[in-house]
Design goal:
single chain, globular, about 30% helix, alpha/beta, 10-stranded mixed β-sheet, two-stranded antiparallel ribbon
């Protein structure tokens, strides 16, 4: 997944798309036991090790959607998204691909004023040594992992980016859109700035739909939390979707939606053996749940329980 994501982002960057929105699955232990395993790269290495059977990791670590099944909520998601984002940044960095030397990555948690909203800012500092850096963490005696909880309303110090540097807002929410707007304007058009796994949903509820109206009712809906105003700001800045891999359950089976900046939306269904994904449909707009259900019906795919009981053909 890291390779696919970074490849799509690199190709989009080559096409002049320097403001990108990316949504990806995150690695998680299925039983929530092995909290030390967060990165896909580490998972792959572990699966090849002689101890993988003893650790029982091969059957438990999976890439899963960022949905309500994460028991730790948004902060558990951040702990999985943080190392995943760093791997993506390393793959994107030109010095990594050309010389094999990884860039210095700064992780700034001060952008999360509450300290518990699961928002972060990461950026590269190409040509600077000293290893990766984390800002906004307490020491171990502080008792809280993140020091952003110290002060609400503190001013956020945004980085100065060179032309080769790259910046990612991790799980941004609507409260940091103003910071995204400020950095995007000050950085110019050259550096890549991406939003990974924004906390607003792709689908709209009633408040989101109302907030997209350019009138007093839309403004009021945005004030109440609708995402319309935030999306208009991002659209004006040129942000667009370059890679999406997300999923949910339909008719009892796992579904994955895949989208690149240069492709339609493609829907895949997991086969009954759980070892492959079958393409079931494709369309220009993001498929709704009803669209995916129709894809499955058109392919003659029955409910998962019916397939398991032999009442419908296997997938």
């Amino acid at each position: 997944m890291i390779t696919q994501t970074s490849l799509a982002m690199t190709q989009a960057l080559s096409a002049g798309k320097t403001r990108q929105i990316v949504r990806v699955l995150l690695p998680r232990d299925a039983a929530n036991d092995n909290f030390g395993i967060f990165q896909e790269a580490e998972v792959a290495d572990t699966l090849q090790s002689s101890n993988s059977k003893a650790l029982n990791i091969a059957d438990t670590t999976k890439l899963v959607p960022t949905d309500e099944s994460w028991q730790g909520g948004i902060m558990q998601l951040y702990r999985a998204a943080s190392p995943t984002t760093k791997d993506i940044l390393r793959s994107l960095c030109p010095t990594m691909t050309q010389t094999g030397v990884p860039p210095k990555i700064v992780e700034d948690r001060t952008i999360d004023e509450s300290g518990v909203d699961g928002v972060g800012l990461m950026y590269t500092q190409i040509g600077k040594g000293g290893g990766d850096e984390v800002k906004g963490e307490e020491d171990e005696e502080g008792g809280n992992m993140f020091s952003g909880a110290f002060g609400f309303g503190q001013s956020v110090s945004l980085p100065t980016l060179s032309g080769d540097d790259m910046c990612v807002f991790v799980q941004p929410n609507q409260e940091v859109v103003d910071s995204i707007e400020t950095l995007s304007a000050s950085a110019g058009s050259s550096p890549l700035i991406a939003l990974i796994n924004p906390q607003w949903r792709d689908v709209d509820d009633a408040l989101d739909s109302a907030s997209k109206n350019d009138n007093v009712f839309g403004a009021f809906a945005s004030f109440l939390g609708g995402k319309g105003s935030s999306l208009r700001k991002l659209d004006a800045l040129g942000y667009e979707v370059t890679y999406v891999l997300e999923g949910y359950v339909c008719k009892g089976g796992n579904i994955r939606l895949l989208k690149r900046f240069d492709s339609d939306w493609i829907a895949f269904a997991e086969n009954d053996a759980g070892d492959a994904w079958v393409k079931v449909g494709q369309q220009a707009k993001r498929p709704t749940y009803q669209d995916v259900e129709k894809f499955l019906d058109d392919k003659g795919v029955g409910y998962k329980y019916a397939r398991d009981l032999g009442m419908a053909p296997k997938l």
